[in-house]
Write a structure and sequence with these properties.
The chain is built from 13 helices and 11 strands. It is α/β, with parallel strands linked by helices and 320 residues long. It folds into 2 domains: 202 residues, 3-Layer(aba) Sandwich (Rossmann fold), CATH 3.40.50.300; 101 residues, Orthogonal Bundle (Helicase, Ruva Protein, domain 3). Helix 8 packs across helix 10, helix 9 packs across helix 10 and helix 10 packs across helix 11.
Length: 320
Amino acid sequence: MINGPVWSQKLREEIGKAVIGQDDVIERLLVALLANGHVLLEGMPGLAKTLLVKSLGTALGVQFERIQFTPDLLPSDVVGTMVFSPKDGVFAPHRGPIFANLVLADEINRAPAKVQSALLEAMQERQVTLGGTTHKLPAPFFVMATQNPVEQEGTYPLPEAQTDRFLFKLIVDYPSHDEESLMMSRWGQVTKQPALEAVSSGEELLQLRAAVDAVEVSQAVQDYILALVRATRELAKPIKGRPRHLSFGASPRASLALFQAGRALAWLRGLDYLPPSLVQEVAPDILRHRVGLTYEAEAEDISADTIVAQIVTQTSVPRE
């Protein structure tokens, strides 16, 4: 069976033909694939979020579908509906774009709550109900959503119940000077654009998860994961004389996410065990969208990343 660094390198090289930079984000996307988790990408317009997800689907060799979320989108536009056939006189299911291996929910916060909730069953149960009949989604199945952090007009903030179902919330930042210069050289040609090929497959990905499950996680590291997550809940408790910066802490999904994502990252790095340092590395991406900031924290310009960093610093680390 192929090892983690080799699999990671071949995918990153293929994606790199189209996407310049964003190495950390690409690695997190590969971790999400291995950990069977969904990803929320947040960043300013024009940072190649859509191109990144589409390139990942091409390099992985799976079916890719893009849904542009708009205020007039209906749930049936996502999951499908029942269509009457005059020839047979019966209703037959017409499957929506959610029936793909990799689904890009572009600008997910532009659709109302009814449409956003249509994704919940698919994301959590990996199935869709049409006309009273349950239809399994293909395996592997991932939802990767994008949202704009600054434009608020005509948007509907994601409810906590939905954001909690994303394994990662990744912040996509601007490229460096050299990366942006290379981007102009590569994408400046109107007639010649980078072409990507499939270097893996959905079947290979499903097989590789067995290797990820074989990564050892010691009891000390499991206790460390629980300590990090439970520390967020302690900060949310009102204590007299202490400023309260969190209105609620992370759910048990955060513990599972740290465990699963940490294993996947360890395998990608060529390790057969999970060290605490990798748990610390993925902690911000897993916890930033699972804690609620109070008005006091927002007034003091304290971010979720700042609080997570303080928790990581103050929590006792077991020996590797």
